[in-house]
Structures are given as structure tokens and as C-alpha cells.
Design a protein that fits this description.
Blueprint lengths: L8 E8 L13 E2 L13 E5 L7 E4 L12 E5 H6 L7 E7 L1 H4 L3 E6 L6 H11 L2 E4 L3 E4 L2 E10 L2 E2 L2 E4 L4 E6 L3 E7 L14 H19 L5 E12 L6 H6 L1 E2 L5 E13 L4 H4 L4 H28 L9 E3 L7 H12 L13 E7 L3 E4 L1 H14 L2 E6 L10 E4 L11 E3 L5 E4 L20 H4 L20 H14 L27 E3 L24 E3 L2 E2 L47 E2 L6 E3 L14 E2 L3 H5 L1 E2 L4 E2 L2 E2 L1 H7 E9 L5 H5 L7 H18 L3 E3 L4 E3 L4 E8 L2 E8 L2 E9 L8 H5 L2 E7 L7 E6 L10 H8 L15 E9 L2 H10 L14 H16 L2 E3 L27 H11 L3 E3 L10 E3 H11 L6 H13 L3 E3 L6 E2 L2 E3 L13 E2 L1 E4 L15 E3 L16 E7 L16 E7 L2 E2 L5 E7 L4 H17 L2 E5 L20 E4 ...
Parallel strand pairs: 1-5, 7-13, 14-15, 14-19, 17-40, 19-21, 20-22, 21-24, 32-35, 48-52, 51-54
Antiparallel strand pairs: 1-6, 2-5, 3-4, 3-6, 7-10, 8-12, 9-10, 10-11, 13-31, 15-17, 15-18, 16-17, 22-23, 25-29, 26-27, 26-30, 28-33, 34-39, 35-37, 36-37, 37-38, 38-39, 40-41, 42-55, 42-56, 43-44, 45-50, 46-50, 47-48, 49-51, 52-53, 53-55, 57-61, 58-59, 59-60, 60-61
Length: 1224
């Protein structure tokens, strides 16, 4: 390593702790006197070599130290010194390193159980630029603790280095939503070369090893495991009725797809420790049961479903892995991930699909491939294909396009997908005998039949008789061409005129570089030559990343297969998906990536790793253990020719409104127009990153001399250019020109999928339907969004059409003591009726008011009178009745003196100086006023005071957003006094016409007075509030306004017999700010005898709703109610659900009421048509919420089992209870 000094300088080491008072609260990693090291400046990188290490480490000099000593001293931060085994008083050699020499190629950061949005990742990356880091360093910026997991420099893992602007920053999540599919094909019962059945290889090898790695890496994934299969029917065995019930593929074959969920949304801190006890015993037992009895189970179901008088015995057989439902399973997964902005969780980041199969070659439909590929790339889902078989001699995975019967094309067409990661799993060696030979092909069974001694390889030692196998293959391939109708061509041509790929020699085929192929490129490590490669690809036991092949050729335009057109080849066919989906016609989209790349190899996810038949593909444990998150940067942008020929261009301008500058920057000395404009520009980038855009690497640069910024962003086939100069920001959008290959009615029909689905605890499969839809950001009005960003609180930005983030919560009575008692005693789950005792309603009302005080950031002023009371009770004290309604001035004076007023600790909010609560005023009137004897009288008198302009209620008006009423300033609403959490104030000349800030206010009622849904008092209202503060980015830079608006959606009334709904919609806040707000609310609710927990927007996900999550479904529980009359049925159902701990979500006056358990773990509703209950688990309940309420998996299973027993009237429990209810 070169140094700026002639020789190293020796220093004695002294240790200090960052931020320690003894060290002067210094927050840096190294301190030394720059006079001891010539030419040392702030920001330089120090290379330190200790005697206990052969490799130096690097640290950035950021703090000047002027004290001089007899010896040369260097002070190292203790955590850093411990990491590199440097001790107190050690002597180390220190020199100045060149930044270019130690600039890292990539850095990988991991984090766990935190929510980090894509805009947060971009800000995090900016914080890391031009700093030094080291392996296992703990970083805590933006409220997210992260760990430096990997550092790559010139193809090698290093222990420290410098993060430059060219360094790729990769984020990996240790807490993702993981969907594991196990494909059951006919090969699962075959043996691998080492004598294991493939399903045994999966259960006894892959899963235990994966779970062990999750444990050792401290992962906290939420896992759903699904067994999938496809069954084909003999057409002759089906009648017309049966054919209507099943599906038909592109080859005209009848089939049905089966999905069985084994584990649904479960999380365990230690999967391995639970394996021998509960989970793996349950998992292994259920999976083994699935595999051992799978065929018989499915065939029995088919018989029950399809057998009719004319169809006595339908014949069905299990498909191979190649003919299975691979793409349908992927699209079902992406449907469940599609609404990324709703049901936002704060404990997980990232979506991962792990597909375990015995095959690696799939027969596919061309449209489904194109659709799934583009959808997967656009959504940024991490997809890992784990193959249990042996790696073949050709490239994998491999898609085979099926020819239709009428097609005259003589060749099969192949696709080598670049948009998925793939691994080959091999069982660990279990014998002392080492078997190094690994077969790469599978013998056909026909060769083994009829042979007495099996297959015998004859050898001949005579070298002259040896056959050149490569020459033989070339001759065979040439003969294939000679016999084809296209023999005039040098190579066989596909349906689009493009030469076909030989899967055994993919190195002969390269493709143009496209945005799709570069979307994930920055997640891969690079070798010494800067080529991105897979670290789990090995040659002779060594990762290919560490192998430098200097003679490895690069793909260029000469090796790019030209689009060959002949007289007999069709010109108007949909494009082959081997090329990018943007390559629609002769005028392909062209451009270049980093380093001027114009072409990449057709094989591999990176396109920069040339095919090598000696490559052994291992398991990408890094991806399987911690899913990689979609990079925020890419390196492709179309060139000028393509922009001119292939794109439509639109532009709009954003004029900066300096009048709102102080709303972003506050009344500070640093507030200036340039800073405000830069913040708006950053926010425009952030909003695009949030929706899946990527920044074109090297494009976000600032010309400081002219104060000009430019940034290019890409998403799918759409590109945006943001340009800032002067007082204006211009946005240019590039859209692909319309093509004749747009969706047809036939292609749209293929996106509808019917399947059979079974969830845990369900008795049988149910018919489900869904629709596969791609995300279309072209419909988003970017011009309006960009214009309104600077105003922050435009209500229209919080509509669903702009995809603002949304989290829904429910507040229910606290029931943890009853839950623990049920689990301990196991004498029935119908014990929750005891919660509602005589004081239940009053306790709930008092607790709810205190909860809303926290939501509104209210605090009490210092008490001036010991007689102050907050009681909601109406018990009168005769000694205190001293006032009359005939003397309102004296009455209000007495109330003013006895009341403890609120104040708001939100500094920007504007409220009257003396704010009091409506419920407290009502209670005081009943106790202290002669003529007022009850609550109704007090409310009437308060309305008289409002009419006489003595008091007033803080206003709340109506404005519709997505069917939700939003509070706005409206004086008419302040003219009505209602009982509940309403904030009132005294009217005087100074505040009569003031426009006060808003507050969340709620009426307290006993039931909904309306039977019409549109007039329901529980319809959601909404109010705008501000986040208090934003997390520092660690550099002191401000990247967001000091007060970020968000909307709170809530029930405008509170009833003790109904769950209170409160939700958050936000637009530009950083993730941990929102998570911290929700955590504060949950903690306050818990201290007030409530339980606040997240809930999905669609609790039940009904199977006949194509817009619901396709991987959730309620459990049907039959209800024997023949002895209950139709008039008494609603009353009986409410009574049953109450004793089992369920509370209403919606108003019971409206059709199909929904209920949630007070523990938050499950939902229930009653289906009158099927005469059954629908029981659904809450998929949003994370480990933290479950532990607070003792809502464990054991408790949930027990409650479901006991509820089923109750509904079956086991031991007469149902009859006894109904008789008691009807007699009351």
C-alpha cells in the first residue's frame, strides 16, 4: 500500500471510549497530534499496523489534538482497538493511506426488527460517504442500528476500508417476510445419487441447516411455508361439468393447482431449539404426513369434488417439477406483497421467496414468463430457487417454451432467466468414506431395463480409437440444422427470428444491456477486474469471485446475436423473453452500464460471469439467511438514439414557493432559499425511491459553483430526470412508445388464477380465485405530486392513488390476566365474560380519555387547587351545590378556578391558553349546579353557553379523502357540545375569531343510533397532525422539515363494547419516527388497561375475493343452531362471541359484522349463508405484540379447538349457554 510519507511512524497506543466525559466527550475513532505525522490533514485516512496483525486497518482522522508529549501518542477508540486486538501501550506503525487505493467496492449492512424505508437507505448511504469503516462495526443512524457484515475490495473480503462515492452500499434484512414453497413433483419420491429421497433431502438436510443458520445469525424472519403441486387430469375421465370446475393450460391439458400452508406467518427467536419440542416436530410430522399420504389425500379430495353420475372416477396424476405451478406460485406471492404501502409493519423489511424443488428445468408459457419476470423485477422481490437435484451439464435454471400443436417451428426455444437467484443443495457428508464423484446427468430408466448386469462401460486403452466428444457433439448439432427447414441459416432461429440458445454453450450468446438486467447488479460482489459475480459459484472449491481469469473474454457487440430475418420467419410475434421486455421490435432500447458496458452474457444473474462448465453451484446462504434488499442505485440509462426513437418525453416544472420555507426550516438563522430548494429536491428523489425507482449511479452530483443538481432515476421502462437550477426544478419523464404487443384479451385472461387452498387448522381445501396485476406507476400523477410536496400537508397526497403509507391499529380492553388463566387452567376459553363487571364501563372511559391525551400530546398544568377532580362519575356532593344556571358568569368563574387546564407540548400547535375537557365540565356541572341533575341536563346547559358565546369547542369539519372524513377548520362544528373527549375553551375578544390547531376529539356513546351505513357514527374520521421531531442523520444535516404532517384516521365515537380503530397515514417521515410514535401509543394504551395492536385492512381475505391476499383464508367452523330461532340467532351469536373474548370491529347494526379477539390474535365473523363462523388469524401480530398479551401460538390453538368444541355442542355446553341467554 502506498503512503504519502517516506516511512511508517511508530506511536504508542492509548485507549479511550467514544463520548466519555474523561475524554472530553469526543466522538471519533482516533486522536493524535498532526505535528507527529507530517502532512496530516482533517479527513485523511490513517493506515495502522499493529504487531499482532499482519494486515493493517484504516481509520479516518477527524479531530485535531494539539497537546505534545515526549513520545508520539495515538488515541484509539476502545471498540475499534478491541476489534483489531490492539492493547493499551502497544506500539503501532501509522502512515497516511491514499483513499483511491483503499476505496471499497461494496459494503454490506445488516439490521434486525427495524423498519427502514428506501428513502432512509438513501439517506443512510449519504451519511456513509467519505468515511472509514471496519468489519462488525455498529452503526446507529436514523434510529436504525446496523452492523457492517461484509467489506469487498478488489475481489477479496477485507476487514476495513474507505467508503467512497463509488462504493456500492448493500442492505440486508435479518427480519423479512419469507415465503417458502416446497414443490411436490413426482421426482420427490426419487432417490438422489447418495440414496436419499428428495423429500428426505429437503426435510432432514435443507430445512435444519437453514434454521441453524438463522439461529446463528440472530435472524427474526416471519415465515410462511407452503406445499404446492399441480395435478393433471385424463380428459377422457372428465365430463362437461367436471371440466368447468378445473383449469386448462396453454397446451390444452386440464389441471388443478393445490396449495397447502403448513406454517403461516410464524416467528421464533430460536428455530433450532424449538425443533425437537414443538415446531420441527410439528413441521416434520406435518410435512412427512404430507409427503407420505400426499397422493392419496389429493386423490380423495378430487373424488369428493368431481365425482358425478357421469364422471365416476376422474383420473389425475401428479405432475413433474417441470410441468408444475412454478410461475403461479410466484405470482401468488407477489400478490400478497403487492400493496407494500398498506398494512405497513415496523418489525420487518423486505420480501423473500424461497422455492424448493427437485427440478431446474421448467416448461413454460411465453406470456406468463414475460409477465412474471417484469412483475418480479419491478417489485424488487428477492427470489431464491433451491434445487434438490444434481447440477446438470447445461445452464440452470432453464425455461423451455412449449410449441403449440399447429406451430411449424421445428425447435424448442429456451430461456435462461436472469431475474432469480439459484442454488444447488447437497447433504453434508455422513460417511467416513469420501465420495468426490458427483454425477451431472441422470440415466434414463429405459437403459437399465432388460439388462442382466446393468450398464457396463467398455474402455479401450488404444488412444487411436478414442473419440473426440466435442467434435461428435458439433457434428450432431450440425446434422440437426441440416435436416431443418431453416438450414440456410447458420444457426437455428426462434419464433422471433433470433438465433436459438444452445443451453450447453451459452457462452456463444450475449444480449444487450438493459435496465431489467441491471436492477440488482449492485447487490453482487465484484472480482479484481470489477466484474460482478456470484460468491456461491465455485471452481475447484474456490469461489469464482476470488478467481481472476485474465483471459476471460468480455461480451461485445460482435458477439451479440443479430436479429436475423428470413422470408419464412414470422415478423410480428411477441418478443422472446430472453431479451429485455423493452426490446419490442427492431428499434431496441440501447444504452450502457458502468464502465461503458453495452452487452452482457445471456447466462447468469449478473451477466458479467462467463459460463464455465466446471463451475459448481453451491448454496447462496447469504441470500437465504439475510435477504438482499433492492439496491437504491443502478448503472443503466438509455442512450440518446434510444431516447429519441423509443420514448415519449413529457416535462413539467416545480416552482419553489419561498413562502413555505420557514415551515421546513423553522425560524432559524440558517433558513435560506437554497437550503429549502435542496430539501425539496431531495424529497422528490425520496418519493420516487419509495415507489421502487433507482438512482442512476454517478448521476446525483452537485455543481457547487453554479448550485446545480441533476439526478436520473429509473423504474421498469420509465425514466425520470430531475434538474435543479435557480428557483426552478424541472422534471423530464421518458415513457416507452406504445407497441402493438400490448396486452390482448387472451393475455389478460391468463392473469386470472383459480386454485385450491388449505390453511392450517382447516379441514379441507377451498376453491380460491385471484388476479395477477402488475404495478403501474404510469398512472401516478407525478406533476401534481411534485408540486404539492413542498406544501407537505395537501390532503390529496394522502389518498390511495398516491400510495402513501398506511398502518391500522385496533384498541381493545386489556385481557392478559384472563388469557394467562385460560392457558393455565385449560377449562375452556369462554371466561372473558367476567371482564365486564360493574366498574368496567367507567374504567374504560377514564382510561380512554388518558389515552387520547397522549395521542394529542396534552399535559396538565400545575394544579392550583387540591379540590381538582377528573372523575367522570356523576355522584353528587350536596355540600358543593352552590351555583345556579341563572348566574353563568359566577358559575364559569368557579369552574375556571377549580379546573386544571391542559397545555400542548407541541410547540408549533396553536391552542387557547385555557383548554378543558367536556367530560370533566359535565361531571363538575352535575355535582356543583343546583338545576343540573344528570348528564343530559349538563349537555343542554353547555350548549346554551355556546349559543351565548361563553365557551366554544375546538372545531372539526368534514373533507372527504378516500371515503374518510378529514377534520378541517369549520366554525359550525364548534357550535355543538357533546359528551366525550372534546376540548373546550373560554371565549373572549382575543380568541373569538382565532384559527386554532386541530386535535383528535371523540364522542363517548353506548351504541350506534343509525341503522344506515352511510349515517353510522363509527365511520372513520381523520385529522392532520405533525411528527414532533426527525431523527438526526449523524452529520447534523437536515433532510426533512422539522414538523412532518401525518393523518390519523379514527372512529369519531368511542363505545366500551367495540374496538376503537386508529390508523396512521404518512408521506415523507422516516421509518423509525413513525415506529416510535406507534410504540408510544401502544405503551400508553397498555398502561391505561387497553391493548393496542396492528390489524390488516382486510382481516378475512375471503377466497372468492380476487383482490384479497391469496395466501390467507379464514377457517370455517360449523355452528349447530337448529334449536335457536332466527329471531334469537343474532343475540345468541353476540353472547357467544362475548364470553370467548371477541369484541366488535364494525357496528353490529350493519350487515356482516366483524369481531376481533381482545388479545388481538384472531378475527371472527358469522356467515349466514353457510351457517358457520369464519375464523381468521391476525397476520400483523408480531412477536412483540403477542408477548405483551400472552397471545402465544399455544393459546391461539387452544382457543380455536375449544371454540370448535363449543359450536359442536360437546358435553351440551352450547345448549346450556343458549338456554341461560334466552332466559335472561
Amino acid at each position: 500500500m502506498k503512503s504519502s510519507s517516506d516511512s511508517d511512524t511508530s506511536f504508542r497506543v492509548y485507549l479511550f471510549r467514544r463520548g466519555d466525559k474523561k475524554s472530553g466527550n469526543i466522538c471519533c475513532d482516533v486522536i493524535l497530534n498532526n505535528k507527529d505525522l507530517p502532512n496530516l490533514r482533517i479527513g485523511d485516512i490513517l493506515q495502522i499496523l499493529s504487531p499482532s496483525s499482519q494486515q493493517p486497518f484504516y481509520v479516518q482522522y477527524m479531530h485535531e489534538h494539539n497537546e505534545t508529549y515526549r513520545e508520539k501518542r495515538i488515541y484509539l477508540e476502545k471498540t475499534l482497538a478491541d476489534r483489531f486486538s490492539v492493547l493499551q501501550n502497544d506500539t503501532v506503525n501509522v502512515s497516511i493511506a491514499e483513499k483511491k487505493q483503499i476505496a471499497l467496492d461494496s459494503i454490506e449492512l445488516t439490521f434486525r426488527e427495524r423498519y427502514m424505508s428506501r428513502s432512509d437507505m438513501w439517506r443512510f448511504r449519504r451519511c456513509l460517504m467519505n468515511t472509514c469503516t471496519y468489519l462488525a462495526q455498529k452503526l446507529d443512524w436514523l434510529g436504525v442500528p446496523t452492523t457492517v457484515h461484509d467489506l469487498w475490495l478488489k475481489g477479496e473480503n477485507v476487514s476495513s476500508g474507505f467508503i467512497s462515492e463509488d462504493t456500492r452500499v448493500v442492505f440486508r434484512s435479518s427480519s423479512s417476510l419469507v415465503l417458502i414453497f416446497v414443490q411436490v413433483g413426482s421426482e420427490m419420491w426419487d432417490m438422489d445419487p447418495f440414496g436419499d429421497l428428495y423429500f428426505e433431502k429437503c426435510l432432514n438436510g435443507f430445512f435444519p441447516e437453514l434454521f441453524e443458520k438463522w439461529k446463528s445469525n440472530n435472524c427474526a424472519h416471519y415465515v410462511t411455508l407452503i406445499v404446492v403441486s399441480r395435478w393433471y387430469f385424463d380428459e377422457d375421465s372428465l365430463d362437461d361439468v367436471a371440466k368447468e370446475k378445473v383449469s386448462k393450460d396453454c397446451r390444452g391439458r386440464y389441471y388443478e393447482d393445490f396449495y397447502r400452508v403448513i406454517i403461516q406467518n410464524e416467528h421464533y427467536d430460536d428455530w433450532k431449539s424449538v425443533i425437537p419440542k414443538i415446531v420441527m416436530e410439528k413441521l416434520n410430522f406435518q410435512l412427512r404426513l404430507v409427503f407420505f399420504n400426499y397422493r392419496q389425500t389429493i386423490q380423495d379430495f378430487i373424488q369428493r369434488q368431481l365425482v358425478t353420475e357421469s364422471c365416476k372416477r376422474p383420473v389425475a396424476e401428479l405432475s413433474t417439477a417441470a410441468d408444475g405451478n412454478f410461475f403461479e406460485a410466484l405470482n401468488l406471492s407477489m400478490n400478497s406483497f403487492n400493496a407494500y404501502y398498506t398494512d405497513r409493519r415496523f418489525e420487518t423489511v423486505g420480501h423473500q421467496i424461497i422455492f424448493v424443488t427437485a427440478g431446474a428445468v421448467f416448461n413454460v408459457d411465453r406470456h406468463m414468463v414475460n409477465f412474471t419476470k417484469q412483475r418480479s423485477i419491478d417489485m424488487g422481490v428477492s427470489l431464491d430457487l433451491v434445487c434438490l437435484g444434481e447440477q446438470p451439464l447445461h445452464v440452470v435454471p432453464l425455461f423451455v417454451f412449449q410449441r403449440l400443436s399447429e406451430s411449424a417451428h421445428p425447435f424448442e426455444e429456451y430461456l435462461i432467466p436472469h431475474w432469480m437467484n439459484y442454488s444447488y443443495y447437497r447433504m453434508p457428508v455422513r460417511s467416513a468414506i469420501s465420495i468426490k464423484f458427483r454425477p451431472r446427468i441422470k440415466m434414463c430408466e429405459e437403459l437399465l431395463q432388460g439388462t442382466e448386469f446393468g450398464l457396463v462401460m467398455e474402455t479401450n486403452d488404444d488412444d487411436e480409437d478414442e473419440i473426440d466428444m466435442d467434435a461428435y457433439d458439433e457434428k450432431a448439432f450440425a446434422s440437426l440444422i441440416a435436416d431443418s427447414p431453416s438450414k440456410s441459416l447458420e444457426k437455428p432461429v426462434g419464433s422471433d427470428g433470433r438465433p436459438l440458445i444452445n443451453p450447453f454453450k451459452p457462452e456463444e450468446f450475449s444480449v444487450r444491456i438493459t435496465a431489467n438486467r441491471r436492477r440488482w447488479i449492485h447487490v453482487f460482489p465484484v472480482d479484481k477486474l470489477g466484474r460482478a459475480k456470484h460468491s456461491h459459484h465455485y471452481v475447484a472449491g474456490k469461489s469464482i469471485v476470488h478467481i481472476t481469469q485474465m483471459d476471460e473474454t468480455e461480451p461485445d457487440e460482435k458477439s451479440l446475436s443479430a436479429l436475423t430475418v428470413t422470408a419464412g420467419s414470422p415478423l410480428r410475434r411477441p418478443p422472446s423473453p430472453q431479451a429485455s421486455s423493452m426490446e419490442k421490435n427492431m428499434n431496441r432500447v440501447t444504452g450502457q452500464g458502468a464502465g461503458g458496458k453495452k452487452c452482457v452474457w445471456a447466462w447468469g444473474s449478473t451477466g458479467e460471469e462467463k459460463w464455465n462448465p466446471d463451475v459448481e453451484i453451491g448454496v447462496d446462504w447469504k441470500s437465504l439467511v439475510r435477504s438482499g434488499l433492492l439496491p437504491i442505485t443502478t448503472d443503466f440509462f438509455p442512450d440518446g438514439r434510444s431516447i429519441h426513437n423509443d420514448y415519449l418525453v413529457t416535462a413539467h416544472q416545480v416552482l419553489i414557493d419561498n413562502d413555505v420555507m420557514h415551515e421546513w426550516l423553522g425560524e432559524t438563522k440558517n433558513a435560506n432559499a437554497e437550503k429549502f430548494k435542496s430539501l425539496v429536491f431531495d424529497q422528490m428523489i425520496s418519493q420516487r425511491l419509495q415507489r421502487g425507482f433507482q438512482i442512476e449511479d454517478q448521476s446525483d452530483r452537485i455543481e457547487n459553483s453554479k448550485n446545480i443538481r441533476e439526478c436520473f432515476l429509473s423504474y421498469s421502462r420509465t425514466y425520470h430526470r430531475l434538474f435543479m437550477e435557480g428557483d426552478e426544478i424541472s422534471v423530464t419523464q421518458y415513457f416507452m412508445r406504445p407497441s402493438e404487443f400490448d396486452e390482448t384479451a387472451e393475455s389478460v385472461q391468463k392473469e386470472h388464477h383459480k386454485y385450491l387452498f388449505k390453511v392450517p387448522d382447516s379441514d379441507d381445501y377451498v376453491v380460491s380465485t385471484t388476479t395477477f396485476k402488475a404495478i403501474n406507476l404510469l398512472k401516478l400523477n407525478w406533476s401534481y405530486l411534485d408540486t404539492q410536496i413542498q406544501y407537505r400537508n395537501s390532503p390529496s397526497l394522502f389518498k390511495n392513488e398516491f400510495k402513501c403509507f398506511f398502518s391500522r391499529f385496533l384498541v381493545t380492553p386489556l385481557c392478559s390476566s384472563t388469557t394467562k388463566k385460560i392457558i393455565a387452567e385449560r377449562s375452556g376459553g369462554d371466561k372473558y365474560g367476567a371482564i365486564k363487571n360493574e366498574t368496567f364501563d367507567e374504567r374504560q372511559k377514564e382510561g380512554f380519555i388518558k389515552f387520547l391525551e397522549t395521542v394529542n400530546r396534552l399535559r396538565r398544568k400545575v394544579d392550583r387547587h387540591s379540590s381538582k377532580s377528573r372523575s367522570l362519575g356523576l355522584d353528587a356532593d350536596v355540600n358543593k351545590i352552590t351555583y345556579s344556571i341563572n348566574d353563568p358568569e359566577s358559575l364559569l368563574k368557579a369552574w375556571r378556578e377549580s379546573c386544571s387546564f391542559y397545555y400542548f407540548y407541541e410547540t408549533t400547535a396553536r391552542y387557547p391558553s385555557e383548554v378543558f375537557l367536556a367530560t370533566e365540565f359535565v361531571a363538575w356541572l352535575v355535582v356543583n349546579v343546583v338545576e343540573i341533575v344528570d348528564r343530559n341536563c349538563a349537555i343542554d346547559f353547555a350548549n346554551e353557553l355556546i349559543a351565548n358565546s361563553k365557551i366554544r369547542v375546538l372545531p372539526a369539519g368534514q373533507l372527504d379523502i378516500d371515503g374518510v372524513s378529514v377534520s378541517i377548520l369549520n366554525k359550525s362544528t364548534s357550535d355543538v357540545f357533546r359528551y366525550g373527549f372534546f376540548l373546550c375553551y373560554f371565549v373572549d375578544e382575543q380568541n373569538y375569531d382565532e384559527n386554532w390547531s386541530q386535535a383528535l376529539q371523540c364522542e363517548i356513546v353506548t351504541r350506534c343510533p343509525s341503522s344506515i351505513l352511510s349515517d353510522c357514527c363509527f365511520r372513520l374520521n381523520a385529522i392532520e397532525m405533525d411528527f414532533l421531531t426527525q431523527k438526526s442523520d449523524g452529520t447534523g444535516r437536515q433532510y426533512l422539515p422539522s414538523h412532518i404532517p401525518y393523518f390519523v384516521l379514527f372512529n369519531p365515537v368511542f363505545c366500551t363494547n367495540k374496538a376503537f380503530e386508529i390508523s396512521i397515514r404518512w408521506f415523507m417521515a422516516n421509518g423509525q419516527t413513525v415506529a416510535e410514535l406507534a410504540r408510544q401509543w401502544c405503551n400508553k394504551a397498555n398502561s391505561m388497561n387497553f391493548h393496542m395492536f396492528p390489524a390488516p385492512d382486510d382481516p378475512f381475505a375471503l377466497p372468492n375475493n380476487p383482490n384479497s391476499s391469496p395466501l390467507r383464508c379464514p377457517v370455517s367452523i360449523p355452528f349447530e343452531h337448529e334449536k335457536i330461532s332466527s329471531e334469537n340467532l343474532p343475540k345468541a351469536i353476540l353472547a357467544i362471541l362475548e364470553i370467548f373474548g371477541f369484541i366488535e370491529i364494525d357496528c353490529h347494526m350493519h350487515p356482516v359484522p366483524q369481531f376481533v379477539h381482545m388479545s388481538g390474535g384472531m378475527f371472527i365473523s358469522f356467515d349466514k349463508n353457510q351457517n358457520c363462523f369464519l375464523w381468521a388469524w391476525n397476520p400483523m401480530m408480531s412477536h412483540r405484540y403477542r408477548s405483551q398479551m400472552s397471545c402465544t401460538e399455544e393459546f391461539q390453538d387452544y382457543m380455536l379447538a375449544d371454540f370448535r368444541q363449543f359450536c359442536k355442542n360437546v358435553s351440551g355446553r352450547l345448549d346450556t349457554f343458549i338456554a341461560n341467554v334466552l332466559n335472561d
